[in-house]
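A quick aside before the break. I want you to see a complete sequence-to-structure record at least once, exactly as it would be stored in a machine-readable document. Don't worry about memorizing anything.
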Amino acid sequence: MDTTLQDRELSRSRRLVLGEILARNARREPDRTALVFGEDALTFAELDTRANRLANALSGRGVGRGDQVAVLMYNSLEVIESFFACQKLGACPVPVNFRLAPSELAYILEDSESVAVLTDGQLTSLALEATAGLDAVRLVVTTGEVVPGSESYEELLASGTADAPDVDVHEDDLAFLMYTSGTTGRPKGAMLTHQNLVANTINWSIEMEARPGDVWLSGLPLFHIGGVNGVLPFIYVAGTCIITPSTNFDPLESLRLLEKHRATMCYFVPTQWQQICSLPEAAEVDTSVLRRALWGASQAPPSTLELLVKTFPSVGIVNAFGQTEMSSNTCFLKADDAVRKMGSVGLPAVNVEVRIVDDEGNDVAVGEVGEIVYRGPTVMKGYYKKEEATADAFRGGWFHSGDLVRQDDEGFIYVVDRVKDMIISGGENIYPAEVERAVERHPAIREVAVIGVPHPRWVETPVAVVVADGPQHPDQAAVLEFIKSDLASYKKPSAVVYVDELPRNASGKVLKRTLRDSYEHLFEERA
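That is the input. The structure line, written in tokens, reads:
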């Protein structure tokens, strides 16, 4: 064997990438159930084999290392096997929110340079509409009925061999391209490597004391980084993941699934926990094996946390905090401190280094507000094709989160606000600039500021504060109808409020804090 080949093989044998994590447990625990969705399930051996077949079939269709493949699906077994198939091939899955409008989806497909779209029967028409005119997309594969322009997922998968693809996947190769947005309103692709995801998986497993045989149940959609990072630790430790439907959340069914599958850990966003804990049946369900009940994605009102603790008094309540660019978890508020430090996001995770800094990058004193910045192996590689945004995010050699926080004398971190004005409604990220751009297109509207205000169900919801262009203005229904084709439904304002002018500072910037203060009780008044 020549020296170059020997060095390459030695390097390859020392790596830990996502496809190899699955393959190892397929060898060690072939018959253990890896995934469950409804009445369907896959063992580790079956999941690994199907991922190999799909990877080899995609390779046969010209998809290779370094290519992006969009995954546009509702929660299903196929989502996870699609992720692993891409990763085994050295390609990069691009999970896409199925709630996006066709134009929003088309932007992500074009920006990511995706060469294929894997979708399901309910979303095939959306995929085909979004890919019309995109020359880079060569393949649309559906798990549902084949229509012109698409082909069968199962037939494609069956055409591939079951052998592991002979591809040299590096730890620094992209494992996911996860789209997030900022104040510009244009989504940016956060480049997450295999090293990033493996490091976060190990961090999560250590912090939550995940172990072989654990059963995980999550209410998150799998296009979310939180949904992805709920599954990976249990693939890593050889546990079982119960996948729930990503639409029409049913709190009673969630309770029944917890009991049926004897879940040891679970995760729901605050609005879902509120619904679950409000059910009379919550007191009757057997959750004797449940060790951890996690929440996150948005801040929870104290009333929801108090109800959660009261409903599951013997279960460890954990707040998992983070963001997509950090792969995702950065802090955990664990069970021992859940009540004592209620309102905090906890302490930094293992292998995540944290500072809290002012605008000049200097550390702030304990108790003072600053931006939380990070270092560590879970920090993203950068934003895809966005060198300026990447440089800005990594100024000073630390990743700047955009979250304003304070830290108490015990090191616990409390989120105060966001540097950027992102709204988190029901666990979904909504970016005001995106909504503002859509509303401002209306010919009878001069300007608009979109803010997030408290909401009894969604925790936070967008409100459009609008200045009309003339004495007559369209009513709320007309505005929402006008923007329907430009925005996913969850991004639409819950209220449209007209004002004579928007408050501004001396430099002309709209004072959104003033607007939030003015309308913070809007939905209390309407209740």
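Two observations worth writing down. Residues 239 and 248 are 26 Å apart (CA to CA). Residues 249-418 form a domain with the Rossmann fold fold (CATH 3.40.50.12780). We'll return to this after the break.
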